[in-house]
Amino acid sequence: MAILPRLSMRNMQAALALCLTWLPGPLLAETAALDAVLARATAPAGIVFEIVDRDPQALNHALPWVVDAARQLRQRFPKLEMAVVSHGQEMFALQKSAQGKNLQPHQLAQQLVKQEGIPVHVCETYAGWKGIAPEAFPEYIDVAPAGPAQINNYMALGYIRIVVPKTAKR
Question: Going by CATH, does the domain composed of 30-163 fall within 1.10.3720.10?
């Protein structure tokens, strides 16, 4: 008795076509380390910083890292477009109700958005799983429908993803 159902040739072709239309974006998209981007001869289309961590306080380390990385990148490529996507447990520190306990992440997020022109996105899907509405985040935080999809959208535009290092302190 076969464990897998028999697939007709038409079903296999449809499955293959689906895989080929879904996979090329992530396979062709580029993820790089900060040093590799800084060593490039020409600027990429943009940079998307990905922050995803289980540590609720990770933004205390991740956002200063992003601010410093953005400064280095802008020194090297002055007109470089950048964005930040936070889609792990750390993103909840950016809620309005958490601002008092998380002053530094809120100040740095505001600095990135308002002074540096770097949008900061959080994941509406993950927030929804935790019962948190988009309105729980301040106006300077963009609540994207899905964090990974937001990253893929940037990468489809030629942005390079830089995964922000996990927090050193646990």
Answer: no
